[in-house]
């Protein structure tokens, strides 16, 4: 997010995106750097940024090559739906939010969650501290910003849980992928990712003081606290190909190297920040270090091992997808996921392999750092 929100619409609109995404039909090219390596394409959700640092590090540090893989990272964009790229055979794996990917599955995409890298949601609703808005219940009667495109369901589930009808009790405002509407007081609460848009607020200058805003200027509604969080970044594989033993083995190797990449970024946040910047990120160094730190919080600690799909978190995501309605009355899903929607078989094998190589796959001692942001995130 800036941006991982892939412009795939939920439910009915999802089918249109599956059929109409122009760039997804263009075959990405790859050139193996070594004929002995297996070329692999990983479709990301957005442009290069620290949200994808673990994959970037796995390439940069040679972890994929150790597994015999030559991995090409494909940047996302506004007109690229990762799960569609995967389902149509244009990539070998893809990174996508769970509810969006499940909506695509319901429309026929043959994909399976094989590694739930983000174990926690990073979505906030942010308001000015002096507004008094500290919970979903206090959004009633307010102007509430949201991005739409399937990113709104944690917000809507939180409001519904608090007894607020999203279609009647608030004024919904289509929010741009920045925080200008909140900064200009055009809305009362804005959607933000902990690792991106929230930082944009703290990188902005308060015109009254000439200094940057601080966390004391804002209040945060965290959907993890409100009980309406949904699973986000996961590695998805081609379901049909998972019947092939060679693809199964490849998936384990890919996940093993991916685990190493994320563990490296947990222990070397500044180095991974530098890799992301060198990769061509459009965001500045302090912003990327903030993002790396916040993304690590979504991954670590991983009690069951990084990437293992927690049954309770999966069930909550599916339940919200089935029952929460947006302002038009649509839900993410019309029915419970069928077939092999997710499996821990391959990530567990990868965890065993990574542990055998001396990798800490749980990060129990992980402690986030304090990042000092600069104006504009430079």
Automatic annotation (TrEMBL):
Instruction: Show the coiled coil region(s).
Output: none
Tell me yes or no: is Nucleus among this UniProt entry's keywords. no
Q: Which domain of life is it from?
A: Bacteria
Recorded hits in SUPFAM superfamilies, A to Z, give: Periplasmic binding protein-like II
User: Has the keyword Transferase been applied to this entry?
Assistant: yes
- GO MF term set: metal ion binding; transferase activity
Query: Which residues are the signal sequence here?
Result: 1-24
Enumerate the transmembrane spans: none
Q: Which reactions appear under catalytic activity for this entry?
A: N(6)-(pyridoxal phosphate)-L-lysyl-[4-amino-5-hydroxymethyl-2-methylpyrimidine phosphate synthase] + L-histidyl-[4-amino-5-hydroxymethyl-2-methylpyrimidine phosphate synthase] + 2 Fe(3+) + 4 H2O = L-lysyl-[4-amino-5-hydroxymethyl-2-methylpyrimidine phosphate synthase] + (2S)-2-amino-5-hydroxy-4-oxopentanoyl-[4-amino-5-hydroxymethyl-2-methylpyrimidine phosphate synthase] + 4-amino-2-methyl-5-(phosphooxymethyl)pyrimidine + 3-oxopropanoate + 2 Fe(2+) + 2 H(+)
Whom does it interact with, and what assembly results?
Homodimer.
Q: What is this protein called?
A: Thiamine pyrimidine synthase
Q: Which organism is it from?
A: Paractinoplanes tereljensis
């Amino acid at each position: 997010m800036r941006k991982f929100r892939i412009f795939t619409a939920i439910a009915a609109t999802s089918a249109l995106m599956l059929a109409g995404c122009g760039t997804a039909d263009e075959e990405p090219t790859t050139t193996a750097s070594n004929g002995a390596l297996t070329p692999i394409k990983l479709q990301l959700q957005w442009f290069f940024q620290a949200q994808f640092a673990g994959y970037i590090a796995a390439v940069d540090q040679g972890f994929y090559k150790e597994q015999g893989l030559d991995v090409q990272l494909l940047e996302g964009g506004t007109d690229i739906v990762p799960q569609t790229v995967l389902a149509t055979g244009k990539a070998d794996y893809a990174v996508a939010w769970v509810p969006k990917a499940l909506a695509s599955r319901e429309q026929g995409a043959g994909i399976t969650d094989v590694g739930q890298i983000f174990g926690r949601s990073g979505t906030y609703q942010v308001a000015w501290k002096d507004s008094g808005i500290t919970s979903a219940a206090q959004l009633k009667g307010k102007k509430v910003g949201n991005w739409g495109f399937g990113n709104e369901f944690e917000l809507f589930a939180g409001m519904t849980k608090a007894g607020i009808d999203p279609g009647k009790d608030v004024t919904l405002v289509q929010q741009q992928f920045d925080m200008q509407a909140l900064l200009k007081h055009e809305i009362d609460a804005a959607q933000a990712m902990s690792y991106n848009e929230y930082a944009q607020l703290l990188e902005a200058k308060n015109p009254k003081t000439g200094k940057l805003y601080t966390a004391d200027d804002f209040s945060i509604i965290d959907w993890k606290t409100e009980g309406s969080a949904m699973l986000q970044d996961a590695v998805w594989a081609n379901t049909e190909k998972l019947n092939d033993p060679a693809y199964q083995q490849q998936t384990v190797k890919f996940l093993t190297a991916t685990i190493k990449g994320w563990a490296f970024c947990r222990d070397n946040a500044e180095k991974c920040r530098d890799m992301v910047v060198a990769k061509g990120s459009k965001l500045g160094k302090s912003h990327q270090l903030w993002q790396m730190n916040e993304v690590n919080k979504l991954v670590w600690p991983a009690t069951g091992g990084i990437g293992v799909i927690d049954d309770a978190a999966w069930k909550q995501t599916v339940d919200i997808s089935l029952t929460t309605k947006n302002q038009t009355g649509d839900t993410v899903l019309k029915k419970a996921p069928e077939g092999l929607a997710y499996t821990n078989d391959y990530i567990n094998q990868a965890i065993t392999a990574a542990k055998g190589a001396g990798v800490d796959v749980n990060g129990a001692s992980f402690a986030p750092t304090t990042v000092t942001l600069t104006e504009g995130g430079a």
